[in-house]
């Protein structure tokens, strides 16, 4: 009995730790991307940055596997050797993440960091719908209501009291945001289905193969999009300390996302991302002199209620 209680507590701590890590990493993501621009444009190749993110995630997964092999030995669940049937499912989410991650850079040509955070909330709806369609899991009415409340709360938190409009975003920005939301939602839910199809399989093995395909697709993107620039100026042309920090942030965020999928679910990831939007606003008070308005406090309250309703709805469904 005591062993069971200790196991539950251990799982709760692990779930909380990875969710908190994802929240902190996500809250700094948009800020680092914007800071990496010079004179309004990226002087580095975004495809090489994306490739390095995947390479770093792959290296981290392999390092974690090496530690596991040293402590537990090589087993059926943690060995890298795999079957074609198992590995053939990874190219789909890897390709989806490639397009989504590249769009993440280009959308900043149309929106600023706060606007980006608002548009990211399309992920909430797309993830909820795809969670129901792909994983065949019934979402309760309370959970659907929580989705709507969360969207309203996050939007309210970013309202500009000096304007009647929430965003001054051109059509291109909205279309890119919608495409990103669908790609992110589908890739996230699909990856969760893959990971949980074989729960005993070591997550670092699953991550390794996903990131290997991610590296391959990003290498193709470099050749197609930035081959001349890389050949003439070098792979690391235009890189700065902020660029390096951004790459580290993206890599660690990817690891945290996969851990959340393994020990929680993709909806937890979505809520973590939404809370990160509010955390970004708080950090902006100290970094950019952001004004904490009444709308922000009201939005924060609505988001808190939405998270509570989601947890209640999950228990009652």
Automatic annotation (TrEMBL):
Its membrane topology: Multi-pass membrane protein
UniProt keyword annotation of Kinase present: no
A Pfam family recorded for this sequence: Nuc_sug_transp
Record has Membrane as a keyword: yes
GO cellular component entries: membrane
Keywords attached to this entry: Membrane, Transmembrane, Transmembrane helix
Origin species: Abeliophyllum distichum
Subcellular location: Membrane
TM annotation in the entry: 142-161, 173-195, 207-224, 236-258, 270-288, 294-312
Source taxonomy: Eukaryota, Viridiplantae, Streptophyta, Embryophyta, Tracheophyta
Protein name according to UniProt: CMP-sialic acid transporter 4
InterPro entries the UniProt entry points to: Nuc_sug_transpt
């Amino acid at each position: 009995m005591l062993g069971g209680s200790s196991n539950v507590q251990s799982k709760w701590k692990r779930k909380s730790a990875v969710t908190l890590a994802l929240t902190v990493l996500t809250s700094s993501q948009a800020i680092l991307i914007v800071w990496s621009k010079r004179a309004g444009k990226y002087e580095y190749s975004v495809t090489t940055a994306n490739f390095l993110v995947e390479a770093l995630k792959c290296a981290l997964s392999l390092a974690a596997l090496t530690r596991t092999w040293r402590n537990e030995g090589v087993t059926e669940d943690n060995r890298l050797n795999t079957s074609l049937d198992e590995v053939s499912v990874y190219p789909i989410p890897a390709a989806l993440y490639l397009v989504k991650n590249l769009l993440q850079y280009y959308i900043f040509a149309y929106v600023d960091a706060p606007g980006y955070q608002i548009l990211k909330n399309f992920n909430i709806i797309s993830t909820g719908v795809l969670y129901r369609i792909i994983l065949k899991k019934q979402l309760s009415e309370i959970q659907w209501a929580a989705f709507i409340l969360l969207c309203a709360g996050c939007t309210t938190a970013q309202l500009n009291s000096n304007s009647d409009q929430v965003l001054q975003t051109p059509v291109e920005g909205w279309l890119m945001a919608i495409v990103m939301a669908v790609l992110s939602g589908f890739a996230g839910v699909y990856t969760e289905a893959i990971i949980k199809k074989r729960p005993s399989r070591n997550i670092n093995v699953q991550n390794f193969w996903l990131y290997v395909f991610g590296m391959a697709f990003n290498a193709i993107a470099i050749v197609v999009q930035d081959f001349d620039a890389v050949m003439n100026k070098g792979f690391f042309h235009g890189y700065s300390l902020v660029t390096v920090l951004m790459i580290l942030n993206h890599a660690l965020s990817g690891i945290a996302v996969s851990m959340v999928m393994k020990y929680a679910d993709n909806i937890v990831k979505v809520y973590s991302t939404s809370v990160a939007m509010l955390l970004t606003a708080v950090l902006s008070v100290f970094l950019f002199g952001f004004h904490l308005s009444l709308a922000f406090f009201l939005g924060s309250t609505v988001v808190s209620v939405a998270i509570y309703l989601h947890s209640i709805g999950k228990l009652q469904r």
